[in-house]
Amino acid sequence: MFLDTPQKPPRTLRYVEKAFDLVKSKKHVRDVVILNESGHPVMSTIHRDDAVQFSGPFQAIRGRLERGMSKIDPTDELLMLRIRTRTNEVLLVPDSKITLLVVQNAHDCFEK
C-alpha cells in the first residue's frame, strides 16, 4: 500500500449505532437514515419502506455528482452534499462503508 493512502477504518455495528445516536440527538435533526455500502438502509428513524423510497433519489444524485466530478478531477471525492428548501435541508455524507442521510429543520427559515 502507498504511504500517502490513508487507511479507512472498518464501520462496525457499534460505530454505526454511535453515529446514529449522535446525529439524531442534535437539536434540529428530524430524520436520520444510514445506508450500507450497497445503498440499503441499515438504521433509520423512519419506517424501512419510507427510508428506501427516500434514499433512492439521493443515491442517484450522489452517483451523478461523483461521475461528473471525476471528469473535472479524478482524484477528488464527494465529502458532503447539502440540499436546502425553505423549511428543511438534507445532508448526504458518504464514506467508505456507510452513507448518512440527515433531514433537519432549516432553523433560520426564509421569510415569505
What is the structure about, briefly put?
The chain has 112 residues and is α+β, with helices and mostly antiparallel strands.
Description:
Belongs to the GAMAD family. This protein has 112 residues and is an alpha+beta fold. The protein has a domain at 37-111: Beta-Lactamase (2-Layer Sandwich), CATH 3.30.450. It is 33% helix and 26% strand. The chain is built from 2 helices and 5 strands, in the order αββαβββ. It has helices at residues 13-24, 48-72; strands spanning 29-35, 41-44, 81-84, 88-94, 99-105. A 5-stranded antiparallel β-sheet has the order 2-1-5-4-3. A hairpin with a 4-residue loop joins strand 4 (88-94) and strand 5. The mean pLDDT is 86.
Tally of individual helices = 2
Q: At the first level of CATH, what is the class of the domain at 37-111? A: Alpha Beta
Q: Helical percent range? A: 25-40%
Distance N to C terminus = 55 Å
Order of helices and strands: HEEHEEE
Q: What CATH architecture of the domain at 37-111 do you see? A: 2-Layer Sandwich
Average of pLDDT: 86
**Spatial strand order of the main sheet:** 2-1-5-4-3
Rg over CA atoms, rounded to whole Å, is 15 Å
Strand content: 25-35%
Largest sheet: 5 strands, antiparallel
Structure characteristics:
single chain, 112 residues, alpha+beta, Beta-Lactamase
Question: What does the secondary structure layout of this molecule look like, with pairings?
Answer:
Elements: H1 13-24, E1 29-35, E2 41-44, H2 48-72, E3 81-84, E4 88-94, E5 99-105
Antiparallel strand pairs: 1-2, 1-5, 3-4, 4-5
